[in-house]
Amino acid sequence: MPANVTATAGTPSAEQSFALPQTAMFPPRKVKPAALVALIFFSVSGGAYGIEGLFSTSGPGMALLLLLVTPLVYSVPHALVCAELGTAIPVDGGSYHWVRRGLGNFWGFQQGMLSWLCSFVDMAVYPILFTTYLQSMAPWAARGKHVLFTAGLFQFDLHWFTCLAVITVFTLVNLMGTARVGSSSVFLAIVCLTPLLLLTVAGFVHLSSNGANPVTELTSRPDQPMWNAFGAGLFIAMWNYSGWDDVSTFAGDIDNPRKHLPRALALSVVVTVVGYLLPALASLAVGPGGPDGWKNWHSGSFSDVAKTLTGPWLQTTVTVGGMLASAAMFSALLASNARLPFVLAQDGYFPKWLARRSHGQVPVAATIGSSAIYALFCLSSFSNLIIVDVFLTNITLLLQVAALIALRVREPGLERPYRIPGGSFVLSLITLTASRPSAPGRRGSSTRRTAPRR
């Protein structure tokens, strides 16, 4: 363990400040409330783009049930933990400092490293999803379609260079500061949600005019066991409803996080649930059969549904919306994940040059280095690694709950602008939700999805 970490071993006192130094001459712009909601939204969801596989895997009835139940037993407890710890310790590094303060240096390091390692797989999803939508309009963007050269086991094709372009553009946005990422996320949220709103209206008009029942079946097949449908779909739903702690890692850049973070988390939960549920329910207007029916849905199928319901113009609109949502998710999560090697370097676990920041308080080396790793992971097919991603993510969530309980016991006097109500009973329920299996009943079909999260 690095010497400077050993010197500070143990649990800091309630009065110890974790605030990171600011540059007085160049004070960074702060993330405002609207931008904070947009950043949380893109860290967790980004809209209904990519959830189509949930319906073909589990069936329409079970999928809608999971979209309603999962946030109650998974997202809300996690958001409550983030609200209490994020307002009590509102500093860059977020969950790393929560766990370090509550459980000590060893578990704090595990929290930071596991979160950063998970991002290697997770962050590569979004540029790839961008190209998945793009190839519906530009077939040359498909993986392996136009190989430019090879290096060992890896093929460098136009698909990968498109991913690289997305990574490069939004890495540059991140280098301008978290406030700039937040401002761009507000704009992109409006642009990305508008096509889904149009799709929702078109779908409900079709359902109303035809008097159709969108939920004709509970599971995807009559012979599919209900528990199998639930388990496979739960894995997908959990991935799409996780990530509430990501925004905590740049808490030092948030304008008055003790006031705005709980409100932003609450609003983001509502926006995320509605953003999943309404477009999906409306899209069921196409029915189960045919090339665009829900039995054949996969990531990007909402674009084909839009064409069936309205025409090519809405198909193009939804496709562009999906591309921009994928890029916005990468941008928001890069702002979060780049802070992890940065704070680990500050504490001596990584080289000190990773702890350097620009005048605008951006961790430049950590941001560029993380982006380079994500670009390399875009070369691989890693659908099965998503299982590992969810498993490790749930371990970090359990550490956060343990840290919350430890701080309640060890530091009762710690200022908590937001405190989870309900006492020990509610904390026990939250602990149960954090310690359940990662993907019960998963079958191979659930790994087809390469869509957002998270």
Helices and strands in order, then pairings?
Blueprint: H1 3-7, H2 33-44, H3 52-58, H4 60-88, H5 95-103, H6 105-134, E1 147-151, E2 154-157, H7 158-175, H8 178-210, H9 226-240, H10 257-283, H11 301-309, H12 312-337, H13 339-346, H14 364-377, H15 385-410, H16 423-434
Antiparallel strand pairs: 1-2
Helix pairs in contact: 2-8, 2-10, 2-12, 3-4, 3-9, 4-9, 4-10, 4-15, 4-16, 5-6, 5-15, 6-7, 6-12, 6-14, 6-15, 7-12, 7-14, 8-10, 8-11, 8-12, 11-12, 13-14, 15-16
Describe the structure.
There is one protein chain. The chain has about 450 residues and is mostly helical. Helix content is about 60%, strand content about 0%. The protein has helices spanning about 5, 35-45, 50-60, 60-90, 95-105, 105-135, 160-175, 180-210, 225-240, 255-285, 300-310, 310-335, 340-345, 365-375, 385-410, 425-435, and strands at about 145-150, 155. A two-stranded antiparallel ribbon has the order 1-2. A hairpin with a 2-residue loop joins strand 1 (about 145-150) and strand 2. The longest helix is centred in the middle third of the chain and has 33 residues, at about 180-210. About 55% of the residues are buried. Residues about 5-25 and about 435-454 have low confidence and may be disordered.
